[in-house]
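Human:
Focus on the backbone:
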Amino acid sequence: MDILNRTVETNFGPQFIYDDRRFFSKIYVLLKSIGLVVYTTTLTMCTVPELYILMIGTMFLSIVNSTRYEYAHYRRYGTIFSSIDEYNQWKQQQWPKSRLIFSIVELAIKIGYFIKTFPPQFDFITICDVGKSVLNIHMLLLFSIYIIIIVSSVCIVSSFYICNQYRDVLPSNNSTAAGASGIIQSEIVSLLLLAQLPVIMNVSPNDECCICMDVENIQAWSILPCGHKFHALCISRWLLQQHTCPVCRMNIAIIV
């Protein structure tokens, strides 16, 4: 990522200075080159090396392509472009998507090998076994990273979806009291939804919350399965501690 690039204002208009050293990209190419050396010196010693040769050849082409791309950026380090658009046009001329294509092909070959040899075995008797074991460890680590990324992404997307679903549960109210307690009520309503308890807004002016002994009806109320009604704030705090109805002592199972 071009995180160090900057745009400066000169007498000739805004100019873009390319000064991204691309450290992580260079380290990635270096590690991949080390892996290529390891696989070349071990997997080619196997009895049937066709699949390994295909994988090693793809890795070699991928490394050559990535090296070409990084070298092109290295040569332009410190270059002053007339604008960011000119830099992007130059960058597109370097075929940046070709790196992704090579990586996908290489990954597909490795996945095919991993499926074919599953469950993985780890032997270090011969040079060929060492190469296979290293490749299996490589694939297990790679899959673990991908699974963590996928699960994290699903959790993040799900949390945003849930927030968008329930952020407008409470109706808008222009009163000062409702505005001051809006954030608290939103959190309480979310808790009650998780607890599978209904939220009600229209209650009788004579209804009194037996927990706080208040008839203040601006805030949200909730009703328990036994039929007793309470302020959402009061009953949510109560259920976190007692798990029973304050009036009839009916057991209330909540899911938090």
Q: What stands out?
A: The radius of gyration is 31 Å.
